[in-house]
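In full, the data:

***
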Amino acid sequence: MRGIPSWDGVDIHLLKVLNVLLNECSVSRAALKLGLSQPAVSTALKRLREISGDPLLVRGRFGMTPTALGLALHDTVRAALEKLELMTFVGKPPFEASQTRQAFSIASPDYLNAGHLGRLVGRVNRLASGATITMHALGPDYDWLGALESGEIDCVIGNWPEPPEHLRTAPLFETDFVVLMRSGHPLLGSGLTTDTYLGAGHLAPTPHSAGPRGSLDMYFARERLRRHVAAQVPYFNLAPYLLLQSDLLFTCSRQFAEHYAGLLPVEYLPLPMSLPAVRYYLLWHERSHYSEADRWFRDQVMSTMRDDEPLSPRPRHALPV
């Protein structure tokens, strides 16, 4: 077996790609793990082969398999990455929130309670007055996966049943579904059953505004339940205002309903069907995982979202859920 070569043209990015390729033995799986396109990983592998003078991975019976040199390099590359990571942090001054002028960015769906984001802005402003926060909406035309990969955004708040596997995730909080309606709605007195719920008129988000298919839509599809959607709205935060002049129902998270029940003459009842809790989580890309500033910002997001303190006064008429 030839000796391990001296690679003058290698950089940290290529080392990371090689490490994941040797772990996964698949260009497609490595691309998912790295959050890169398959052509990008193939190009990196080609460059690594040129530098090393060895194929490093070759086709085998069940996919790709490392060459003798690839196997010899695996532990060395892994150890080198760990040392480079440590040297990077040792050589950098510690992050100080009170002194930073960092620009942070976060994307979230518009059905998240606005009080959560307001409290996040307040927290960051108190601890890092020189920092700025940019909010991005997860609309149908926004490539949030590409934005995470490029660094355009630092993190994303989501609640989809299956988040992308190649992203880092951390749980934020859980909530349940309730049914929001105007004060004085007939169903407030008679109660809400599955039959009365399905027989009522509903206000719903337009399909494109809801992002990846949520647990409520999946439940209706699985149980083959139909409800009459009498009106659609492109933005969640418009829905409570549209309920005021009709007997329509709007199904949303309990935190969202509580927020608007403290602001408008609307009330809410428990959803009559039993659905699993809605889980919100934070997502971020591997590229920003080790950044001290980004880690600090993620800590603020998680602390804010996990805080059980009420976001608005709970109205007397709101029923417990």
